[in-house]
């Protein structure tokens, strides 16, 4: 199969492809997004397109732990989808992952123009994988103080005649 230049592919797919999502705003303004796998900003533009460029970068979450997949396309395997990507899974802290992304994308002269986009995508993916801290939430001190005063006055007024719950809390 003959290779087709990226600009020609972009001219064919830029206005009509299955990944295109159009958002209409007020008036005549609209924003075009793209759901392509190798599009870092999910914008419908030639620079970020995974369909038109031979060299693409993608950053995706893998599993439920804090691991992130960094995949770059191999230039010579364009017609073999299973062997098309060079994949590396990163399970480190954020700074080490960011350094690995910079080394892979910019310092190896792969696509230095996508360095900022790849780091932004890595930051968003890493933030989405973080689990919220669980545990007892701190109660408002004024609410605790008010609750204690309320309990004190009820005990003083009603004595032992008022029913209490299993932990000695007052039930209304």
From TrEMBL:
Highest taxon in the source lineage? Eukaryota
Q: Which GO terms describe its cellular component?
A: ribonucleoprotein complex; ribosome
* The Ribosomal eL28/Mak16 domain, residue ranges: 8-128
Q: Which InterPro entries match?
A: Ribosomal_eL28, Ribosomal_eL28/Mak16
**What are the alphabetically sorted keywords of the record?**
Ribonucleoprotein, Ribosomal protein
What is the source species?
Mucuna pruriens
Q: Give yes or no: UniProt keyword Mitochondrion.
A: no
The protein's name is: 60S ribosomal protein L28-2
Task: Give start-end ranges for the coiled-coil region(s).
Answer: none
What GO molecular function terms would the record report? structural constituent of ribosome
Q: Does the keyword Ribonucleoprotein apply?
A: yes
- From the UniProt record, give one GO term of the biological process aspect: translation
Q: What family does this belong to?
A: Belongs to the eukaryotic ribosomal protein eL28 family.
The cross-references to Pfam families, in alphabetical order and at most eight, read: Ribosomal_L28e (PF01778)
